[in-house]
Write a structure and sequence with these properties.
Largest sheet: 6 strands, antiparallel, barrel
Order of helices and strands: HEEEEEEEEEEEEEEEHEEE
Structural class: mainly beta
Number of strands: 18
Distance between the termini: 60 Å
Helix content: under 10%
Strand content: over 45%
Strand order of the largest sheet: 8-9-12-13-11-10
Shape: globular
Radius of gyration: 23 Å
Number of helices: 2
Length: 257
Amino acid sequence: YNTQKLGAIFALPANILQPATLRGNINTIDSKISLDGNIPLVGYDNMQIENTTLSFNSLDSAFQGIIKSKLQMENGVYTLGLNAKGANNTIHATLNANNNDTTFRMNGNIEAMAEFLKDSRNNLETHLKVFPTDLNVGKLKLQMLPSTILNTAEKTEINNFGITFAGSDRKYFFVDALLSSDSTASVNDSIRVSFDRSQIGDLLGAFNIDNIKAEIDGSILFKKTASQPELLTQGFKVADIIIFNDTLGTLNLDSQW
């Protein structure tokens, strides 16, 4: 069968370019499910996704799922993997990625745990916890900050989501936010992006951009994001700006827009 037609038949965002196999067992008596799959080649936009394998096993409310794949792009091949385990109302997942590009290396993983609860009105609450994990991007050795994201029927709350340099006691940047789903409460919405003496040159250097340098310190606050947006800066500074070896000085910005 020509599997390329499946994308059009089922309105899939990708095309299955080579025949895929899927095998499994369902045991309703013992509440067991096992599933293994192999998808050799999938086309999506201008990318090719190769050698995708998946495995899923469950027993009652506990499960484990593993997906591995290779993503063929212009600058190299990226190997991706997702390992998820869950039981009852909790899911623990790790996403890892690495590439074979010798000029721009990228590897690392992101680990998170999600817990699903019900509030007093039986509305779903999602509690997401992001663990500190290593990310290597080009020349940089980064680390995800430990952070939390709470999503309820009324709001989304983000605390300390960001990155730091591995081994450093300073945060490169981090985000704290409160976003309301109710338009009448959106006047209290806020997104704060903070920097702690962060060197722009270090980040751009990972992408082989070496002609821009500066140090960013302070925070930018966005308020009333869903109604009448406001932007505030207080004690925000871009210091020692150097572009193409020309020293431009320091920008101090206290403003309200």
